[in-house]
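Lecture notes, unit on protein representations.

Consider one protein chain, 113 amino acids long.
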Amino acid sequence: MQLPQEGSLLRVFIGEADKYEHKPLYEWIILQAREQGLAGATVLRGMMGFGANTRKIQTFRFDTLSEDLPIVVEIVDTEENLEKFLDLIEPHIKAGLVTLEKAKIRFYKADKK
C-alpha cells in the first residue's frame, strides 16, 4: 500500500471501560480500521487522565487500579479515508473526543521477508 506524503492522523480518545456489543470499544475500532483497509492503527493506554464524562482523575497505581483508564486510538491514512471511517464509527462512540490533523508521512513500508 502506498500513502501520499500528505496524510492525516486520526486520534480517538475514549475510556478503557467503553464497550460496543460487549467488547472493548477500542478493540472494535481497531478491527473496523483493518476491515476498512486503513494503513494501520495503534491503541495507547494512558497512565492518567480525565474527560468530558468524568472530572475525576483516573490513574494507574498499584494500590488503586483504575478500571477506566484513558485510551487513545491513533490511525494514519489519507484524510478522505479517515473521514469515511469517522462516519462509520462516530455513532458508536457515546462519549469521547476525536481529532483529525495533518500528518507528513515520511515512509510507510512493510518488511518483505
